[in-house]
UniProtKB/TrEMBL annotation:
PANTHER family membership: DEOXYCYTIDYLATE DEAMINASE (PTHR11086:SF18), DEOXYCYTIDYLATE DEAMINASE-RELATED (PTHR11086)
Protein name in the entry: Deoxycytidylate deaminase
Pfam families according to UniProt: dCMP_cyt_deam_1
Coiled coil spans: none
Record-linked Gene3D superfamilies: Cytidine Deaminase, domain 2 (3.40.140.10)
Keyword match Nucleus: no
Length: 172
């Protein structure tokens, strides 16, 4: 009889979030998320175009350019950023397709640290914890501060390893 090591709950649910991300057709980054209450899985979601609308793999990315002021070597500089607006973020889809009553007191596992907009939405959704794997430096400081103000546990699984067979080849 073989004895295998059982995965801890954080690893188990993050694995499921990464599996959900494989449904995404985003060519820039595939993101998955799951909603958990206790140890019960209540929903999964991934990023993509609205249902029935061609996604980025079919119609191409819908890129918009934005400018952001950044402090570089003590000087303010305008930095050009590009983002796709065709895609609904995984966290937004999770909120659209789950009930608020299920979210109250729940945990969200997400492959990537939420952006500012998604963090705002999650902060008002009733969840009490967000667990993520890959960082999103652009919004990290302000998202972390907001979660602290809201009393939402916000933590990164730094030592997590993506399951074999799921390739982390989509980054920005």
């Amino acid at each position: 009889m073989s004895t295998s090591v059982r995965k801890d709950w954080d690893t188990y649910f993050m694995d499921i979030a990464y599996m959900a991300s494989t449904r995404s057709q985003c060519s820039r980054r595939r993101v998955g998320t799951v909603l958990v209450q206790g140890k019960k899985l209540l929903g999964t979601a991934y990023n993509g175009a609205p249902s029935g609308v061609p996604d980025c793999s079919e119609a191409g990315c819908m890129i918009v350019e934005e400018y952001e002021v950044k402090l570089v070597d003590g000087k303010e500089e305008m930095v050009k950023k590009q983002r796709c607006v065709r895609t609904i973020h995984a966290e937004q889809n999770l909120l659209l397709f789950t009930d608020r009553s299920d979210r109250v007191g729940s945990t969200v596992y997400v492959t990537d640290q939420p952006c500012w907009t998604c963090a705002n939405m999650l902060a008002n959704s009733g969840i009490v914890e967000i667990v993520y794997h890959r960082p999103y430096p652009k919004d990290s400081d302000k998202v972390t501060e907001m979660m602290k103000q809201k009393g939402i546990l916000f933590r990164r699984l730094e030592s997590y390893e993506i399951p074999a067979g799921i390739v982390e080849d989509i980054t920005h």
